[in-house]
Design a protein that fits this description.
This protein is α+β, with helices and mostly antiparallel strands. It has two domains: about 110 residues, Beta Polymerase, domain 2 (2-Layer Sandwich), CATH 3.30.460.40; about 60 residues. The protein has eight helices and seven strands. The strands form two sheets. The chain has a five-stranded mixed sheet. A hairpin with a 3-residue loop joins strand 3 and strand 4. The two termini are about 30 Å apart.
Length: about 190
């Protein structure tokens, strides 16, 4: 079974037991037309649903490799899913990301999948690069591609505030200028 099929079945099982979740990594990017580059799978999950998550994944043969207040990392032997990373939605802001998530066609012949909105995906990417200039450069390229793919459907004023929060207003202005220019091709 492919990683996509395994993940699709797993997310269906989340629905069945009431685990609030949304894709927030490269599978989410793929749903917006950006090629998937990272073999790891990232899912935003409501912190109150961690006990249900643990029961389900442990019953399916996954092993919890790491847990902090903010993330959980599961692996499974003989699985196409190399790893599962769960970002805990513990704050009001991250829980609202779950509430705003979009239902998108991510997997062929499967139900629609919850995916964080582009602005929220960008927020998570920026937060994840704090203090890591190499990762920040890579993520800015991905963010620009994401914005170019959906430039009509994003809240540019919210993005300006978000980039300012991370002291990246200059980077935002450059991205915005390039993406909004006519004939933008990536």
């Amino acid at each position: 079974m492919s990683a996509s099929s395994e993940l699709s079945e797993l997310l269906d099982a989340f629905w069945n037991v009431g685990i609030r979740h949304a894709l927030c990594g490269d599978f989410a990017l793929g749903s917006f037309g950006i090629p998937r580059m990272d073999p790891e799978t990232e899912v935003l999950i409501h912190k109150e649903d961690l006990p249900k998550l643990d029961d389900m994944l442990l019953d399916q043969g996954f092993t919890l490799r790491y847990r902090s207040a903010n993330v959980s990392y599961f692996v499974k032997q003989k699985s196409e899913l190399q790893s599962l990373n769960f970002v805990h939605a513990s704050s009001e802001i991250s829980q609202s990301m779950l509430e705003r998530a979009l239902d998108k066609p991510v997997f062929p012949e499967a139900r629609l999948t919850r995916v964080v909105k582009p602005e929220d995906l960008i927020a998570l990417k920026l937060q994840g690069t704090t203090g890591d200039l190499e990762a920040r450069h890579k993520e800015l390229i991905v963010i620009e591609a994401l914005l170019a793919a959906g430039k009509k459907d994003v809240d540019w004023s919210k993005l300006a505030e978000l980039f300012s929060l991370f002291d990246m207003a200059t980077e935002f202005e450059g991205i915005q200028s390039r993406v909004k220019s006519e004939g933008r091709q990536l």
